[in-house]
Write a structure and sequence with these properties.
- The protein has 248 residues and is of the alpha/beta class.
- It is 35% helix and 27% strand.
- It is built from eight helices and ten strands.
- The strands form two sheets. A five-stranded antiparallel sheet has the order 2-1-5-4-3. A five-stranded mixed sheet has the order 6-7-8-9-10.
- Strand 8, helix 6 and strand 9 form a beta-alpha-beta unit.
Length: 248
């Protein structure tokens, strides 16, 4: 039979949780924080003019959670968990879970505020940029040993580096033999794009993959003054796949 240890206190339990836990009274004033939260608030305290995390005890939680009247009303009538997201001084972002702590009689005596997935605003923006960059050049598996890469917009040095790194990883991890570079989203073909494609082709050859250029529209073909004639080109992805099937 399981037995609860008599000398285990609530603060011991909250300290053992690997999240930032705050305790606020019915006026929403901060009365306690666990060790994990102290580490976090050591960084936050100077933003509010305090030297240490402990100096923020007594501070009203509305100062950095939410100052709206609607939010205050929600807290007053809170009977279950409330989830949200906060931005602290435009520098830290965190998901929040606010839970009323009730006595045996069912009366709320405190609020437990849990701050999860805390990141810096800069870190969040970097993650957004990373996701956007990943989505800007998708790599699509179109056959057992072939991927298609639709290019849209300008292919600058930054996007080229990203494309080469992503394709190299895909080709080596997935044993890819053919990469179909789809240019149907490119409006104008110039010397810079030609140079980038040539660099991409040479790089893929190092890992045993062949670069096939597909999606050559009539409008795009008219601007092919700088194209490397040694590259294999096809009208569309379907034509490129037919070529691959014939090789196998």
């Amino acid at each position: 039979m399981a037995v609860i240890i008599d000398d285990l206190t609530m603060t011991d339990a909250l300290n053992s949780i690997g999240e930032n836990i705050l305790l606020a009274d019915l006026q929403y004033d901060l009365v306690w924080m666990n060790d994990e939260a102290k580490n976090l608030f050591t960084k936050i305290a100077p933003l509010y003019g305090f030297k240490a995390a402990e100096d923020m005890i007594g501070m009203n939680m509305e100062t950095f959670l939410n100052k709206s009247e609607r939010h205050k009303e929600l807290i007053k009538g809170l009977r279950g968990k409330q989830r949200g997201r906060i931005v602290i001084k435009n520098q830290f972002v965190a998901d929040t879970v606010i839970t009323p702590l009730e006595s045996k009689r069912g009366k709320t005596s405190y609020y437990i505020i849990m701050l999860m997935d805390v990141t810096t605003k800069a870190g969040q923006e970097e993650e957004k940029d990373r996701i956007i960059e990943t989505l800007s050049i998708p790599i699509l598996k179109v056959w057992d040993h072939a991927v298609a890469v639709p290019l849209i917009g300008d292919l600058d040095e930054k996007r080229l580096d990203q494309l080469i790194q992503s394709l190299l990883k895909e080709c080596t991890d997935g044993e890819i033999q053919y990469a179909l570079i789809d240019l149907s989203g490119i409006q104008t073909f110039n010397a810079q794009i030609s140079r980038h494609l040539e660099q991409l082709t040479q790089t893929l050859q190092l890992v045993g993959a062949e670069c096939l250029v597909v999606g050559i529209t009539p409008k795009l073909a008219l601007s092919f003054h700088h194209f490397d004639r040694r590259m294999k080109t096809f009208k569309n992805t379907h034509a490129g796949l037919q070529y691959i099937l014939k090789q196998g």
